[in-house]
Every structure is written in C-alpha cells, then in structure tokens.
C-alpha cells in the first residue's frame, strides 16, 4: 500500500476524529500539527503492513520448504518403486528362461502336472520387429558340444538368449546348429518352436510355417505342440491365406478346448470376421 493511498484513506477519518474532539488543545498536543500526526499515523500503518508482509513471506517460505521436502520424499519413493519393478522384471525373465529350458521335450500332460504352462505365441519375451534392438553383422557364435552335456543345455540357452536380444538371423543359425548337433536333445521341441518364431519375427512366413509344422509332426506330445498349432494359424493369417488360417485355428479350438491357445484362436477368428475375411 503506497503512502498516498494511506494518506487518502486515513486523513478524512483522522480529521473527523479531530473535529469532533472537545479538547480545545488537541491540535497543539505535543506541539504537533495535524499533518505531522497524519505522517506519524501513516508511518505506523506502513510499518504494520511491512510486518504483515514479512510474516506472509516467512509463511510462504516455510510452505515451500515443506513442499520441497515432500517432493524429495516422493521422488525417493518413486525411485524405490522403479528399482523394485526392475528387480521383479529381471527375476521374472530369469524364471521364464529357466522354465523354458526345463520344459524342453516334456509332454503336455507332464508339463501341466508340474505347473509349467506351455509357451504360447504373444507371451514370449522375444522382441517384435521394429523394436529398439541392436542389429549386428557379427557371425553367430555357435556353442561347441560340451562333454557330458548330451542335451546341449548350454547351446540351447545361448541360442534362446540370442533370440531374446533381437538378433534373429544369428538365432536362426544357432537353433539350426543346435538341432544338427543335438538331434536327440530334450530341448529339441523348444528349439524347433523358437526356430519357427525367429523366422516369423523376421517376416519369413513361408519358412516359419514349415518350422512350426515340424513341431507338430515331430514333437506331437511336446508342450510346444499346441503353441505351434496356434502359430500355424497366425502365420497363415500373415500370409493372407484366410481359408487355411480358419482351418488351422479351428483345429486348435477342437483339439485344446478351454485352454489359452483356444481363447487366442477364437480372438483371431473374431478379428478376421471384423476385417471381413
């Protein structure tokens, strides 16, 4: 509030009080004139305004400090949450990899009894085409046969990790090499399935179809067979062979009622219907 404003507001009131005062010597009190008294009053009011403003500023500063401390605490909590999420993701990825390795060559019935669900396309950890993956021209490193490792667990794990990293061509080479080196491996069905997946994400659908069909024909009791049948239907869809896609997806529904692959097959058939195929 400016001095002129204070004077404008206070002066009429003060003069009114002075005029209504009955004491004859009020104007001469302490030898001060009316203007001097008005000046004193203005200074007093200004000091009170400054005090109030100072108090408000201090209050605002306290509130800002409290907000800053609250923000820092929330940022700390957010950092902890993100770290927990990273840890959970890494643990989940490790567990899925372990289940994938342990599930090789196991029949569908034994896989269900052990609580290990069969892998289904769309739930894998293989990054899709166009994702942020590092494309490398480095030749695939094929694991040499390990003495005492008749099933080629190390080679299979290496090929699977290569696929997860998005190095599709290297993964194809690695899985093909694995199948040739360990034809009797318990991981054979898994390797065959992921070989088809590697071709599929590389958009080589004709070859992918052939590889998925091998899973069904060569490993019919594997827990990969149902996922491969679903992928056959998906692959026909990508090839725009609508009749074959409907037939393949219908076969999944008939053979595996009440399962996840059946639900996915129905969803794809509904999608085809919406698209007019």
TrEMBL record:
Query: Record's Gene Ontology CC terms?
Result: outer membrane-bounded periplasmic space
Which PROSITE patterns does the annotation name? TPR (PS50005)
Protein's cellular compartments: Periplasm
Q: What is this protein called?
A: Cell division coordinator CpoB
Signal sequence bounds: 1-28
The UniProt entry, under InterPro entries, shows: BamD-like, CpoB, CpoB_C, TPR-like_helical_dom_sf, TPR_rpt, YbgF_tri
Q: Name one GO biological process term.
A: FtsZ-dependent cytokinesis
Query: Tell me, what's a Pfam family for it?
Result: TolA_bind_tri
- The UniProt record lists the YbgF trimerisation domain at 33-102
Q: Which residues form a coiled coil?
A: 50-102
Swiss-Prot/TrEMBL keywords:
Cell cycle, Cell division, Coiled coil, Periplasm, Signal, TPR repeat
Organism, scientific name: endosymbiont of Galathealinum brachiosum
Q: Which residues form the Outer membrane lipoprotein BamD-like domain?
A: 150-273
Task: Provide the organism lineage as a comma list.
Answer: Bacteria, Pseudomonadati, Pseudomonadota, Gammaproteobacteria, sulfur-oxidizing symbionts
- Name where the TPR repeats lie: 189-222
Q: In the UniProt record, does the keyword Cell division occur?
A: yes
Write out the function statement from the record. Answer: Mediates coordination of peptidoglycan synthesis and outer membrane constriction during cell division.
Q: Which family does it belong to?
A: Belongs to the CpoB family.
């Amino acid at each position: 509030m400016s001095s002129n404003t204070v004077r404008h507001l206070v002066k009429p009131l003060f003069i009114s009080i002075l005029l209504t005062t009955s004491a004859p010597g009020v104007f001469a009190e302490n030898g001060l004139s009316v203007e001097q008294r008005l000046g004193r009053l203005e200074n007093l009011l200004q000091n009170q305004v400054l005090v109030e403003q100072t108090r408000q500023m201090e209050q605002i500063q306290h509130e800002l400090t409290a907000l800053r401390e609250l923000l820092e605490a929330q940022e700390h909590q957010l950092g902890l949450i993100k770290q927990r999420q990273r840890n959970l993701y890494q643990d989940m990825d490790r567990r899925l990899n372990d289940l994938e390795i342990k599930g090789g060559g196991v029949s569908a019935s034994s896989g269900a009894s052990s609580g290990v669900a069969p892998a289904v396309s769309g739930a894998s950890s293989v990054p899709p085409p166009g994702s942020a993956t590092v494309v490398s021209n480095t030749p695939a490193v094929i694991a040499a046969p390990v003495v005492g490792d008749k099933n080629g667990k190390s080679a299979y794990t290496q090929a699977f990790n290569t696929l997860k990293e998005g190095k599709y061509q290297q993964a194809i080479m690695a899985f093909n090499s694995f199948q040739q080196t360990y034809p009797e491996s318990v991981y054979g069905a898994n390797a065959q399935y992921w070989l088809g997946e590697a071709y599929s994400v590389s958009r080589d659908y004709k070859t992918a179809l052939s590889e998925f069909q091998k899973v069904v024909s060569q490993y019919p009791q594997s827990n990969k067979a149902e996922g491969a049948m679903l992928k056959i239907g998906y692959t026909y869809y990508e090839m725009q062979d609508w009749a074959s896609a409907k037939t393949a997806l219908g076969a999944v529904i008939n053979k595996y009622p009440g399962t996840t692959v059946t639900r996915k097959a129905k969803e794809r058939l509904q999608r085809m219907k919406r698209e007019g195929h």
